[in-house]
Structures are given as C-alpha cells and as structure tokens.
Amino acid sequence: MKELKVLSMQGMSFLSLPQSIRVLENLRTLHLDYCKFEDVSAIGALKKLEMLSFFGSRIRELPRETKNLSHLKLLDLSKCFDLQRIPPGLLSSLSRLEELYMGEVLMEWEPTEGNREGEGSNASLAELMSFSHRLMALEICIQNPKSFPKDFLFKNHMTRFHIFTGNLISGGFYRPPLTDQFQYQSHDYLFENNLVLWGVDMREIPESPMLHQLLQKSEILELREVKNLKNILYELDQKGFQCLKVLSVRHSKDVEYVIDTTSDQTLQSALPILESLQLSYLIELKEICHGLSKCSSLKNVRSDSQLAFFVNLKSLWLSKCSRLKNVFSLSIARGLVKLQELEIERCDYMEEIFLKEGEEDEMAFDRIKFPQLTSIRIYCLPKLIGFCAAGDPAVKISHKFFSSKTILWSLNLENLKLNEADS
Questions:
Q1: For 277-334, how does the pLDDT look when each residue is reduced to its tens digit (9 = 90+)?
Q2: How many Cβ atoms sit within 10 Å of the Cβ of residue 240?
Q3: Residue 226: which of 239, 235, 218 has the closest Cα?
Q4: d(C-alpha 408, C-alpha 321), whole Å
Q5: Smallest Cα–Cα separation from 150: which of 123, 184, 186, 112?
Q6: What is the DSSP string of 289-302?
Q7: 409: helix, strand or coil
Q8: Where are the alpha helices (DSSP H) in 193-340?
Q9: pLDDT digits (tens, 9 = 90+) for 38-86
C-alpha cells in the first residue's frame, strides 16, 4: 500500500479523513469525489501529492494543512457547494499549482489584497499571482467584480479559463442534495475560454485590467442583465473580439448595438471567427450592426474583405428584440456564406430580414447566397414583409418571401418553419 500512486473514493461519508491515509507517502493522485467530511486535515501528510480532487464533496473549509502539498499541480473543488473558506495565504503557498477548478462554488473572495490571518478572513484572487506564470487552467466564480486585483494579468498566454462573475444566485446556481449528486458525471477538464458576466455594471470594467484581458481572450462570452452597456463591441473590447466564437446577450436593457461603426474607435475586422450569435430580451436593441451606410469604406464589403463582419457565423438566434426592424444590411448578408441556422421569434417590429440601404448596388439581390443554410425558423413576427423587401412596403410576404431575385436558396435546406408571420 505504501507504493500506491492513485486513490479514488466516491460517495463516502466520514467525520474525518482516516489518519491511516498518512502511510500513503508516495500517493500522487487523490480523488475524494461526492464525499462528506468534517475534517480532511490528514491530507497534509501526502507531501508528494500532485492531483487533489474534492469534486462534488461536502466540505466547508480547505484545511491549512493543504499548504504542505508543495508538489500539487491540480486542485479541484468544483461543485463543493458548502465550501465557505480557504485560509488566506494557502493558495499562494501552492507555488507549483497549474490547474485550479472551483466551478459553482459560491465562496466570498476577500475583496482586498491585504488579508488578515484572523478567524473569518478568506483567500483573495491576488494570491493567484504567485503561480500565474504556471497557470494552465482556471475555473472560478466571483460574486463581486471588484474582487479582481487591479494589477493582475495572466502571464501564461496558454491559460484556459471558465469564469463566472456577478449575481450568482440569479445565475441559476443551486445546492443539490447529496443523494442526487451521483447523477453528475466526472469533471470535464477540456473547455474553451468562457466568461459569464451576470448583473454586472459595465462602468466597473475599466478598473480591471484582468477583466479586460479575459474579454479579449474569451471564446464564449455570455452577458446577462448587464448595466450601462450600449455598444457591445467597442465598449468591451476595442480590438473586436478576435478570439470569440459564441456571443450570447440576454435581458440587458441598455444595449442598443452589437457593433457601432460610427464610434470613435478605429474600424477593423470585428468578430472574425464568431460562429454563434444569440440575442434575446434586448428591449432597446436598434440594430445589430449600426452605421454601415454611413461608412464609405464599407460600401463594397465582401466576404473576403478584412473589414467584413460575421463571415464565419453559423447560427443566429434572435428573440424578444422588440425594436429591431431588420437583422442585417445586404452588405453583411452577402458575407454569410457559412450560415447554417437562422431562428427569429417574437420581434414585434421586424419588417424584413435583410435591409437594402442607401445607394447599394441594385444587383445585390443576385449576390445573396447561403450555400450551407439548413434550418430556418420564423415565429411570431407580425410586421414581417419578407426576407428583403427592397424598400417597397407594398410588397407582401407571399410575393417576395421566397423571391429568387432576393435569395438564391440552398438545396441543403432541410427545416423551414413559419408561424404567425403576417402574410
């Protein structure tokens, strides 16, 4: 037993971790998943431990003895719903730590960098700085965005992250009973860079270089109930979200544009690899991309242009965007050659899907092709005229909706659902 390298226990319940575990002096990996412990201080004797997982377990505090694990590379506390405290200085002492997972843990991080050693104080995010050059994966929940240390940046450009910050209670977090936890699968350590901002006031963003860095590196960005945000693109990332694949924005009452090309920022390629765009319950959303008709440099945007937007978009879902009258201009529609799924529902003032703007080329209709489009779902758009009415409101949906002059329909189209659209 002394030569044992890996030990895994699931669903166990102990008042304290057996002291006999100390004899496993060569243990490298310890999984104590979905367990219930009052005291796990005995793990401090396992000084060669490299991987430690408490996934889904009922523990209230990470013991101080964890500091003794000087070889620890991976620490998993995900779904430890009862975890309330990590002693200050503990995380910073784990100088070899490469992966820290604390998904769905509602622990209050210490808001100041100068932690007290007294009872009740907690760890701060500033402690991550001690191993940021080694950090390969970080998964945490942060209830207060002000907990982000102002001078912290990831030093390892390969760091993967899944970070949820803001109103965690509204975010759907829950505490399942122990008997139900066996329904959950083991932790999937492979994930894309994901940032969720829920109920956050965007005026706080400029104060945090770390949050700016996360925004720039995010592959999945979810915005829920954000405040004081009108122009998503350049207010959050002036470089145009070069890494973003999925953008989801919901219940954010101040949002007016996803992209505003009339802003003072230098126009460049925006959202170049975005594959999925989800917009719902945005009551003030006026346009997805605003100002193209006023921007002379975009008069002849093509899908291969460095200034083209949404050229890799595969899925578009719009719901409850009551002020939105159209989705894209023809100049953008011509570049949607990879679009596969289009779903629009309950947008009360939607008149047409694609808009002919200003003096755009009259031959634009012949250029709209969706070779990969397989699914269209249009639901409850009472003012809809057609896919592209070409500025003629007298033309009814039944005459223009599937006009070959407007859309060159793909032979790959498999799903077409039209419900409660004005005909």
A1: 999 999 999 999 987 655 544 444 444 443 568 999 999 999 999 999 999 988 888 8
A2: 19
A3: 235
A4: 27
A5: 112
A6: EE-GGG-GGGTT--
A7: coil
A8: 209-217, 232-236, 330-333
A9: 899 999 999 999 999 999 999 999 999 999 999 999 999 999 999 999 9
